[in-house]
Amino acid sequence: MFPTPIEKTSRLTQVFYKVALPLALILWLLPLIAVALTSIRSAGDINSGNYWGWPTSFNLVENYTAIFRNTPIGQYMLNSFKVTIPTVIGAVALSCMTGFALAVYRFRLNLLVFFMFVAGNFVPFQILMVPVRDLTLQLNLYNSWQGLALFHIAFQTGFCTLFMRNFIKALPVELIEAARVEGVSEIKIFWYVVLPLMRPAIAALSVLIFTFIWNDYFWATVLTQGAESQPITAGLYSLNGQWVSAWHLVSAGSIVAAVPPVAMFFLMQKHFIAGLTLGAVK
Amino acid sequence: MQDFWKQNQQKIAPWLFLAPGIIMFLLYVIYPIIGSFQISFYDWDGLGQKEWVGVNNYIELMDDEAFYTSLKNNVIWLVLYMLAIPAGLFVALFLNQTVFGIRLYKSLFFFPFVISQVVVGLVFSWFYDPSNGLMNIALEAIGFDAIPVLADERYVTYGIIAAGLWPQTAYCMILYLTGLNAIDPEQIEAARLDNAKGWRMLWYVILPQLRPATFIAMVVTVIGALRSFDLISIMTDGGPWGSSRVLAFYMYEQAFSEYGFRMGYGAAIAVVLFLIMMVYITFFLYKMYRDERGQ
After folding, report:
1. B42: which strand partners?
2. Cα–Cα–Cα angle for B125, A233, A209, nearest 5°?
3. What are the record keywords, sorted (chain B) (predicted)?
4. What is the C-alpha separation between A64 and A85, in angstroms, rounded?
5. Model confidence at A282, in pLDDT bands (50, 70, 90)?
């Protein structure tokens, strides 16, 4: 193991490490800790500039109910779920099929199709912006969760295909060949042989895509307007404009917006990291 | 019909499986790329008639000071964002231990990557706040003057990049932690017997084995740097006086500007950004192609 395991070092180093670890963590998360602490302060503290001293009162419940009562943050959150969940289902479903096709069959255009998905996944969003907005307007889906979700499904299929294809490539080919010899049709091979083995990949992609889409801000501003359809990221931006210097409310809003992806990460940590570090080890 | 399917299903099946994915991808990714190239030769407000102007949009770009500011900032982003890679490696080495609770530490260090860049942007605007922000309180405590980072043309881009480096370092850290986990312990033991230690060990034994992780870290960091939009939009809206714009942001601003939509001009900026990105994409695809052939 590298660096040298701490147990094998001198007493002094061990003590130093054990002190440094929590200190480093606090320093690393300091901006976030500051926000969490601010979100429970009172308006009085904020106005009198008491940001860092002991709060005059703890307004946890008041602040968090205030943002839900006085702003459309509940609606924003709901909109985010309405975009995110269909996107996860759609992109994972499409890429199970494309990944299967590209991993299992040999045909002339195989690598070309694969590279199209991979390259498309890396393009800057701005090169898509004007035509995608136009297309969404023409489909009458501007300002709707469907319009956002359809675009996200299509775009995420690129990354998901890369992931699924490499995952299926690593499965034993013999399984598929044995099934073919038995005369099982290709569609049944996909459904009964390969799909059950893809569960870890499906889990990994689902959490990753959930986080990516939940945190999307650019497309939310391009394809939606107004509280009835905007997701939480775009919503926070508008709220930030309205709440000038009401930092306790901005902070509470930020924390609320961060809860779903953070919860997803902690619940599915293993899968999340497996998905994110694809290709980091040979 | 049945016989035809039976005989040819291995040829037809891949296309059946690919069809929905390809159709969606062509419609929402490939066709819009071509569309943007086309629009970049027109003058268009997004609603009315498109007017053909040839390469005029590109000629205008070459005289546009804001374009050069954005381009320069893109280069700064690209260069400084790379710091996330050594920083991520450093944090990963720091955390690659087996002491009690280390798993929780690793997750908490990864935290900044999980939350939205909108939240990161708000958190850092707050951190930089000239009167009550933590950074300036700390600066004043040690006897310096407060720096209004986001309102000063000289510092604003660096301030935003620092905010971006926070989640990006977390991402690189997790890549390296995974890489470190997979290193062959026997090689390390062998190197230790040869008296390799510290930096020499890191440079000659560890880093070569971390190459796949470094490669992925570079790819995601370059893409992240060129995609920078969210933080700029949240923290400064391109200001002060447009000094923190990058191409991605400038394009958006032009296409949806409050003085009327300039879709053609915006598309021309997007094309430039796309061509820069294409250099990296080609490099990545070339490497993938080599790996595929090598199998």
Report:
1. B52
2. 120
3. Cell membrane, Membrane, Transmembrane, Transmembrane helix, Transport
4. 25
5. low
Domain membership of residue A14 as a residue range:
1-33
Mean pLDDT over A220-228 rounds to 90
A20 lies in the same domain as A109: no
Residues of chain B short of pLDDT 70, as ranges, are 1, 258-259, 295
Asked whether residue A112 falls in the same domain as residue A185, the answer is yes
Residue B19: closest C-alpha in chain A:
A98
Task: Tell whether B201 lies on the interface with A, counting CB pairs under 8 A.
Answer: yes
- Residue contacts between A and B (CB atoms, under 8 Å): 288
Based on the fold, state whether residues A19 and A119 are members of the same structural domain: no
Provide the token pair at B293: 């052939």
On the question of a cis peptide bond just before residue B86, with omega within 30 degrees of 0, the verdict is: no
Best probe of the B interface among A222, A277, A278, A282, by most B CBs < 10 A, is: A277
Which whole number is the average pLDDT over A229-235? 93
Q: What percent of chain A has pLDDT over 70?
A: 99
Q: Which two tokens stand for residue B272?
A: 């430039």
Could you say which residues from 107 to 166 on chain A have a Cβ atom under 8 Å away from some Cβ of chain B?
107, 110-111, 113, 115-120, 122-132, 134-135, 150-151, 153-155, 157-158, 161
Q: Tell whether A82 and A52 lie within a shared domain.
A: no
Residue A102: its pLDDT value, please? 95
